Amino acid sequence: MSSPAVRPLPPRRIPFVPRSPAFWFLAPAVLALAAIGVYPMLVALYNSFHHYNLTDLASGTPFVGLDNYIATLTDPSFWGALGRTLAFLLLTLPIELGLGLFAALLLHRQALPRVRAIARVSLVIPMATTYAVVGLIGRLVFNRQFGIANYLLGLFGVPPLDWLGDPTLAFVSVMIMDIWQWTPFCALILLAGLSMVPREVEEAARLETPRWSMIFWHQQRPYLLPGITAILILRSADMLKMFDAVFTMTRGGPGTATEFISIYIQRVGFRIFDQGMASAQAVLLLVLTIVLSRLYIRYVYREA
């Protein structure tokens, strides 16, 4: 009699380890996000409820509850920095959005594909420039002695201006550099939205009415609203945490003219060394960013 065939045992599966290839493709990104984003946020949240001063580590980090938040909300300097940041956002973001929309409409009406390709590549250059380099460029452009800004004004007979020494002009100079860097981003996002409009619909609308404002409002605007929402969310978050370009360009000065909220938090955390207070301020800034994002989605994106 022949011996019965021995059936091989199925391979042992390690518990809690998924076999899906998608899991292994996503795992590195999830781990990087947890290490870079989630863990520091949890540490900041923990520190915000504790007394944590780098100059007084001998006393430990005792739990203080909401004391850091109360001290932050009653700090006039915090509200001053937040007010300057919101003023910068309210003044700069509409200009970037308006100029970006104007550039997107011009490129959308341009029929030559080579011109559009060159324009798109040119728009990427400011976006690819790092914040610190933008700040250094700003220091050179608005230098009182040899900056190109005063040179151009001199062609019209305007005397040299102390751009980085005057509080108002320093604020305006930071606005100009931010507009230069991020208007192309708005233009590219809005151009992508315009490219989604069916060509047949635009041609039919042009036959019915010659008014471009009617075509824009009824045919193109619905396709632009998702992009506008994305621009509002991303640029608002960037402006609220804007640090590198401003610190490199003005160091927050003169005085506190360009001391935005991120620079103030850095000063509290790494010059006064009060990590607990700085963490509470960072958490409040995160809450403000989330609230603004929800408002944008509710009142802008819902119209799409």
From TrEMBL:
This is Carbohydrate ABC transporter membrane protein 1, CUT1 family. It is found in: Cell membrane. GO terms for cellular component: plasma membrane. The chain crosses the membrane at residues 21-46, 86-107, 119-142, 179-197, 223-243, 278-297. PANTHER family: BLR7065 PROTEIN, SPERMIDINE_PUTRESCINE TRANSPORT SYSTEM PERMEASE PROTEIN. Residues 82-296 form the ABC transmembrane type-1 domain. The keyword Membrane applies. GO terms for biological process: transmembrane transport. The keyword Transmembrane helix applies. It is a multi-pass membrane protein. It holds the Pfam family BPD_transp_1. It comes from Paraburkholderia caballeronis. Belongs to the binding-protein-dependent transport system permease family. Its main location: membrane. Keywords: Cell membrane, Membrane, Transmembrane, Transmembrane helix, Transport.
